[in-house]
């Protein structure tokens, strides 16, 4: 696992600035929830940490090293999206091992790593199935498995549960937290669901229109919201 630091990050699309100088220090092993209304810049920020989006200004550090010019693969991060983007023609095992194969990992090693991840996610009996033969929750688990096999230093989640029904969402929430602890990784978890953020996170970052409004533990934000926006978002009395 690795620390993640954002230093005065800005993002502009043409003449429009959507992230206005965000700074944030995330400790090794921490579970951070990044919350805020739709369009406030959560995905953009996450994609800049991942290296999927250029940074207009500022620095991203992972494990203390500036990674601005590194590719996503070189950053040793894994990202889980709400659309699982599994390959429909591949089995669960092939989907989970695909990135390892691309990296040139030998077949027996791929089998071992996929097996370990499958055990952790209770997917052992489903390894030969195709994605179309899985439930939504199982597909999401495969997507997480695909991320875990690479033993990432940092896990990035972008609203991974928003396509699931309410009951499954609660169950998967617990699984994600367990996974974070078992794998021993640093996690940044984007959600617009306050309850999800409150139950999962060590600290919550509240983003509004490209700026950080407040950073704190769920209890700190609930008890002492910095302003009405945070109070309204967290649902606490201001
Ligand atoms: P969130 O994930 O919080 O809903 P996003 O990070 O997706 O927000 O978007 C933040 C802002 O950046 C929005 O105003 C969005 O319209 C804008 N934006 C995102 N991607 C692009 C793009 N490729 N070109 C122009 N504007 C974009
Ligand atoms: Mg988004």
Characterization of the model:
The mean pLDDT is 92. It contains 8 helices and 10 strands. The protein is of the alpha/beta class. Helix 2 crosses helix 3 (107-120) and helix 2 packs parallel to helix 4 (136-148). The termini are far apart. The protein has helices at 42-50, 92-102, 107-120, 136-148, 166-183, 194-200, 218-223, 228-234; strands spanning 4-13, 16-26, 31-35, 57-62, 65-66, 77-80, 154-158, 186-191, 203-208, 211-216. It has a 6-stranded mixed β-sheet with strand order 6-7-8-3-9-10, with helices on both faces. A 4-stranded antiparallel β-sheet has the order 2-1-4-5, covered by helices on one side. Bound molecules: adenosine-5'-diphosphate and magnesium ion. Adenosine-5'-diphosphate binds at residues 13, 18, 36, 38-44. It comes from Agrobacterium albertimagni AOL15. Keywords: ATP-binding, Cell inner membrane, Cell membrane, Membrane, Nucleotide-binding, Transport. It is found in: Cell inner membrane. GO terms for molecular function: ABC-type transporter activity; ATP binding; ATP hydrolysis activity. This is ABC transporter ATP-binding protein.
């Amino acid at each position: 696992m690795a620390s993640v630091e954002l230093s005065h990050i800005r993002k502009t699309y043409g003449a429009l600035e959507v992230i206005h100088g965000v700074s944030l220090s995330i400790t090794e092993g921490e579970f951070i929830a990044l919350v805020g209304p739709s369009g406030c810049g959560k995905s953009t920020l996450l994609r800049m940490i991942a290296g999927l989006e250029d940074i207009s200004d500022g620095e991203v550090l992972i494990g203390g090293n500036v990674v601005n010019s590194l590719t996503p693969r070189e950053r040793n991060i894994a990202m889980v999206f709400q659309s699982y983007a599994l390959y429909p023609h591949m089995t669960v095992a092939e989907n989970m091992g695909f990135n390892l194969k691309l990296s040139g990992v030998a077949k027996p090693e791929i089998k071992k790593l996929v097996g370990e991840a499958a055990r952790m996610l209770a997917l052992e009996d489903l390894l030969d199935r195709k994605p179309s033969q899985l439930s939504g929750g199982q597909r999401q688990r495969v997507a997480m498995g695909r991320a875990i096999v690479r033993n990432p230093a940092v896990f990035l989640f972008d609203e991974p549960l928003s396509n699931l029904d309410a009951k499954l969402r609660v169950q998967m929430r617990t699984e994600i937290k367990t996974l974070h602890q078992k794998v021993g990784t640093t996690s940044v978890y984007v959600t617009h669901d306050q309850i999800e953020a409150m139950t999962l996170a060590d600290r919550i970052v509240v983003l509004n229109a490209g700026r950080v409004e407040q950073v704190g533990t769920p209890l700190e934000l609930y008890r002492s919201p910095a302003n009405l926006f945070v109070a309204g978002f967290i649902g606490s009395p201001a």
